[in-house]
Model the fold of this input.
Amino acid sequence: MRAVSDRQVEVFIGEVLRTGVIVSAVLTVVGFALYLLHFADAQPHYLHFIPLRGRFYFPSMLFHLAASGHTQAIMELGILILIATPVARVAFLIGAFALQRDRLYIGVSSVVLLVLLFSLIFMK
Done:
């Protein structure tokens, strides 16, 4: 296995973060633009507030609906990718620290990843 320099890790992590934010922004803006195109003439009813229930709870359903062109699902997929970007960063850091054989930072990053995943999965 070849050694990975700190600079290579920084550049790679920067690319992961930049790509995640750009993809998220593009999906959110495209979903919003499509939403405006489809529902531009809709009249809101301000007298009766009807809260939306969580229709896209499972990511597999979200991917399916976004692929079929559902505008709200496209926007929510953009937000999901934005939320997943820092999680991906920590996961890639664990891999980079493993290549550098830095056990301390592998352990610290693993704890951070577990806390992130726990909070995303179990906190409501």
The mean pLDDT is 88. Helices lie at 6-38, 59-67, 71-99, 103-122. The chain has one domain: 6-38+59-122. DSSP finds four helices and no strands in the chain.
